[in-house]
Amino acid sequence: MKKLNELLAPVQTVEIIGSDDKMISGLTSDSRQVTEGTLFVAVPGVSVDGHRFIPMAVEKGATAVVCQQLPEDLSTHVTYIVVPSSALALGYLASQWWDNPSRKLHLVGVTGTNGKTTTATLIYEMARLLGHKAGLLSTVCNYVDDTAYPTGHTTPDPLTINELLHRMVEAGCEYAAMEVSSHAADQQRIAGLRFEGGIFTNLTRDHLDYHKTFEAYLAAKKKFFDLLPADAFALTNADDKVGDVMLQNTRARRFTYSLRSEADFRGRIVESRLDGTLLSLNGHEVELLFTGKFNAYNLTAVYGACILLGWNHDDVLREMSRLVPVAGRFQAFHSPKGYTAIVDYAHTPDAVVNVLNAIREVIGRQGEIITVVGAGGNRDKGKRPIMAREAAARSERLILTSDNPRFEEPEEILRDMEEGLDEEARTRTLHITDRRQAIRTAATLASKGSVILIAGKGHEDYQEIKGVKHHFDDREVVREIIASESASGR
């Protein structure tokens, strides 16, 4: 239970109709969850406007309603709070409801197109390796110390975020890392949170089905840094073309990391293999179980964040060597036939390029790469032909297959991808809609020294088809194939 006027303390209001001196028993933006004494926040959504459900919320016992426009009929026993932005208000209300947990943690946010999950997860892992209790909010899984909680969106809604942060505080966590998606920044899901640091990884084409333009996508990412407090740190990738843009209006302390130029935190690849990298960090060499330039960037960012959080430099370097790749991120499986299968979450053109370049750097021009890739349905269609073109340019064989078609027909998605291929590339491309069969075909085609890249789903253990999630895990399929090969003695 909380007093309404206490909850409203940090919220900008336009008008309050009714008494704010009443007890609130619950807080929600979902009218289905309203019970007697609830504060209901009517948020305009992407597809549904929460203002439509104010009458239902009042009928179910809501004591107060936060809204941007008053309903036509006002109930005399309900307090109505008019605000400029319900989404913004929900963030601050959620923080107040859970006693502002972000202010009791050293919270680091990571944003960018690629590398968010790996960077946030490794900061969480580093905190634990260095003896601290920590939490994680990520695409793969949410963690409160070592207790896992399932995840939905890359960045959850404000109530879920603050509840999980509150659980971290209750569990004695000192640190927390979280992915900050462009959707979350644009929809005010991080409003009311106090970050100690922010990290920018990179920016390439993605989510244009939502943001419509690259400029709007950039602005959503930049918004996170614009809102950082003056005593926080802002760490940006100096090698990305918009890296400096992210820091233009931030009040936070500014730092850079780079693999190519002078920066506060400088990484340099000394040696790269499929099973690891020797990386120099500010002149100190460390052996890491990660492959590829994109991972070198992620690890340099992690190194910088660890130092900016005040952790001992020598301890940081020692523990970084113990880090292991995130599930479904450049996860390698070795076949008795002598080929290597790599499962990776790469689902944007830039991510596919990064992973394939990393493989090519290790195996050289003599090795064969077979790429299995698709594209998600009901998402940015413009990236489909680009992904196919980039994959074909960096692979000897290409197999186009289904990803998460959602409510589209898989065949139509593959036809969109094929539009990016020239005649020569089409001669090296197979079209196999069934993803399991596509992976099996790649394994059949592979020979000793080949590398199969299975891109797009990574850690996901489902395929979403016509609104239903069917169990499917690329890693399970690869393990089954390798087990079969071992059993047959091939």
UniProtKB/TrEMBL annotation:
<feature type="binding site">
    <location>
        <begin position="154"/>
        <end position="155"/>
    </location>
    <ligand>
        <name>UDP-N-acetyl-alpha-D-muramoyl-L-alanyl-D-glutamate</name>
    </ligand>
</feature>
<keyword id="KW-0573">Peptidoglycan synthesis</keyword>
<dbReference type="GO" id="GO:0000287">
    <property type="term" value="F:magnesium ion binding"/>
</dbReference>
<keyword id="KW-0067">ATP-binding</keyword>
<feature type="binding site">
    <location>
        <position position="460"/>
    </location>
    <ligand>
        <name>meso-2,6-diaminopimelate</name>
    </ligand>
</feature>
<dbReference type="InterPro" id="IPR036615">
    <property type="entry name" value="Mur_ligase_C_dom_sf"/>
</dbReference>
<feature type="modified residue" description="N6-carboxylysine">
    <location>
        <position position="221"/>
    </location>
</feature>
<feature type="binding site">
    <location>
        <begin position="112"/>
        <end position="118"/>
    </location>
    <ligand>
        <name>ATP</name>
    </ligand>
</feature>
<feature type="binding site">
    <location>
        <position position="456"/>
    </location>
    <ligand>
        <name>meso-2,6-diaminopimelate</name>
    </ligand>
</feature>
<protein>
    <recommendedName>
        <fullName>UDP-N-acetylmuramoyl-L-alanyl-D-glutamate--2,6-diaminopimelate ligase</fullName>
        <ecNumber>6.3.2.13</ecNumber>
    </recommendedName>
</protein>
<dbReference type="InterPro" id="IPR005761">
    <property type="entry name" value="UDP-N-AcMur-Glu-dNH2Pim_ligase"/>
</dbReference>
<keyword id="KW-0436">Ligase</keyword>
<feature type="binding site">
    <location>
        <position position="181"/>
    </location>
    <ligand>
        <name>UDP-N-acetyl-alpha-D-muramoyl-L-alanyl-D-glutamate</name>
    </ligand>
</feature>
<keyword id="KW-0133">Cell shape</keyword>
<feature type="binding site">
    <location>
        <begin position="403"/>
        <end position="406"/>
    </location>
    <ligand>
        <name>meso-2,6-diaminopimelate</name>
    </ligand>
</feature>
<dbReference type="Pfam" id="PF08245">
    <property type="entry name" value="Mur_ligase_M"/>
</dbReference>
<feature type="binding site">
    <location>
        <position position="189"/>
    </location>
    <ligand>
        <name>UDP-N-acetyl-alpha-D-muramoyl-L-alanyl-D-glutamate</name>
    </ligand>
</feature>
<feature type="binding site">
    <location>
        <position position="31"/>
    </location>
    <ligand>
        <name>UDP-N-acetyl-alpha-D-muramoyl-L-alanyl-D-glutamate</name>
    </ligand>
</feature>
<keyword id="KW-0963">Cytoplasm</keyword>
<dbReference type="GO" id="GO:0009252">
    <property type="term" value="P:peptidoglycan biosynthetic process"/>
</dbReference>
<keyword id="KW-0961">Cell wall biogenesis/degradation</keyword>
<keyword id="KW-0460">Magnesium</keyword>
<comment type="pathway">
    <text>Cell wall biogenesis; peptidoglycan biosynthesis.</text>
</comment>
<dbReference type="InterPro" id="IPR035911">
    <property type="entry name" value="MurE/MurF_N"/>
</dbReference>
<dbReference type="GO" id="GO:0005737">
    <property type="term" value="C:cytoplasm"/>
</dbReference>
<feature type="binding site">
    <location>
        <position position="379"/>
    </location>
    <ligand>
        <name>meso-2,6-diaminopimelate</name>
    </ligand>
</feature>
<dbReference type="InterPro" id="IPR013221">
    <property type="entry name" value="Mur_ligase_cen"/>
</dbReference>
<dbReference type="GO" id="GO:0008360">
    <property type="term" value="P:regulation of cell shape"/>
</dbReference>
<keyword id="KW-0131">Cell cycle</keyword>
<dbReference type="GO" id="GO:0051301">
    <property type="term" value="P:cell division"/>
</dbReference>
<feature type="binding site">
    <location>
        <position position="187"/>
    </location>
    <ligand>
        <name>UDP-N-acetyl-alpha-D-muramoyl-L-alanyl-D-glutamate</name>
    </ligand>
</feature>
<dbReference type="InterPro" id="IPR000713">
    <property type="entry name" value="Mur_ligase_N"/>
</dbReference>
<comment type="similarity">
    <text>Belongs to the MurCDEF family. MurE subfamily.</text>
</comment>
<dbReference type="Pfam" id="PF01225">
    <property type="entry name" value="Mur_ligase"/>
</dbReference>
<feature type="domain" description="Mur ligase central">
    <location>
        <begin position="110"/>
        <end position="305"/>
    </location>
</feature>
<dbReference type="GO" id="GO:0071555">
    <property type="term" value="P:cell wall organization"/>
</dbReference>
<feature type="domain" description="Mur ligase N-terminal catalytic">
    <location>
        <begin position="24"/>
        <end position="97"/>
    </location>
</feature>
<feature type="domain" description="Mur ligase C-terminal">
    <location>
        <begin position="328"/>
        <end position="458"/>
    </location>
</feature>
<dbReference type="Pfam" id="PF02875">
    <property type="entry name" value="Mur_ligase_C"/>
</dbReference>
<keyword id="KW-0547">Nucleotide-binding</keyword>
<dbReference type="GO" id="GO:0005524">
    <property type="term" value="F:ATP binding"/>
</dbReference>
<dbReference type="GO" id="GO:0008765">
    <property type="term" value="F:UDP-N-acetylmuramoylalanyl-D-glutamate-2,6-diaminopimelate ligase activity"/>
</dbReference>
